[in-house]
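Ligand-bound model needed. iron/sulfur cluster.
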Amino acid sequence: MKVGFISLGCPKNQLDTEVMLHEVLDAGYEITPDETEADVVIVNTCAFIESAKKEAIDNILDVAWLKKNRGLKAIIVTGCLAERYGEEIFKELPEVDAVLGVGSIHHIVEAIQAVTAKKKGSRAKYFSHDDRDAVALGGDRVLTTPDFAAYLKIAEGCDNRCTYCAIPAIRGKFRSRPMEELVAEAKQLESLGVRELTLIAQDITRYGMDLYGAYSLAALIRRITAETAIPWIRLLYCYPDKITDDLVAELRDNPRLLKYIDLPLQHISDPILRRMNRRGDSTVIRDVLAKLRREVPGIVIRTTFIVGFPGETEADFSALCAFIKEQKFDHAGAFAYSREENTTAYDFPDQIDEQVKQDRLDVLMRLQTEINESLNREKIGAVIDVLCEDYDPVAEVHYGRSTADAPEIDGKVYFKAPSRVAPGTFVRVKVQEVVDYDLYGVVV
Ligand code: SF4
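Prediction:
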């Protein structure tokens, strides 16, 4: 029996896919990368915003076509969409045979057995919606990332209550994984060849507060650094008001912790930040940025903004653009506010017209592209460390990432080398050219 996986959304969801892959393989099923050959397809979904929900439904409809027209026997939907709209999925998408909420990922084998054992013509469905706050975190997994780079999910859920965000309702309360377990997993990943470890969670800066009564991210990084030799450790998803002095010192002094931080800020206008229920106002944000730049020279800062939040005036948006020009973030993403059911902001007055949101998003992203190009041009002539990802035989060029580029979200470095460089090897590259977000150069 062949099982196919479609994994959507963020790296946190990707890790759940990796755990399910391991359980499915362990049960003796064969995994196929080609859904047209599969007997069962598992769609692990995201439901953070409207576009993510649409992508999930489009994928389910694609595999529903395979079920109707090819040999596909069953479709299982897991992940955030399944948690949020479990009953509706069965009602609206009759082709779906099983729905597993985020607390039920460890029932994946049971679900496959149930949906493939059912009699032909039967309408029996498998539905599991276990308590997401009680599900065991971690577990063996099959890496879906290249051998040399992996994510480490250090916590699950979120206790922040940003008014636009459905994640706490989907993923449950914040739960850290014990430090010993994480260090053991980091060691295991190292033994598999991992050279870049990216720490993730909905909010990694809260790590340890529930287990140890103190913000413990810096302590965790120290333990991973002491007990492994992984050369690159990277931080994604930090919350600005929880950047402790200990963490700043670690970023400054630990040579294997990359001088890179992802700090989603969402906005800079105080009335908007208050309505978003973000902790920390514009002063806190400016102070933390100033401190990071002062204490950690050369730090690369990635952030994310939301435009078109209810009540966002032209003045609020202009303040955001001025802030972006002033701060010159190395990387900034943005999305138009998505009005999500069962979030506080859903009922806010002064919802912004969709076209206005889109126009603001375009303006902001154009601005950031110009900043990126200008920052990248400053790198021409510099020699940078690059982790080689692979070789493109068509373009006849290697590609990889520098310390300034996180996997999948930031730019790439394309480079020529006198001989073939193996994926996972570190090289020094002299930058010669810039095209959009990417750098081009030659190994020195
Ligand atoms: S910190 Fe805010 S935006 Fe991030 S997951 Fe938690 S509630 Fe959502």
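DSSP finds 13 helices and 19 strands in the chain.
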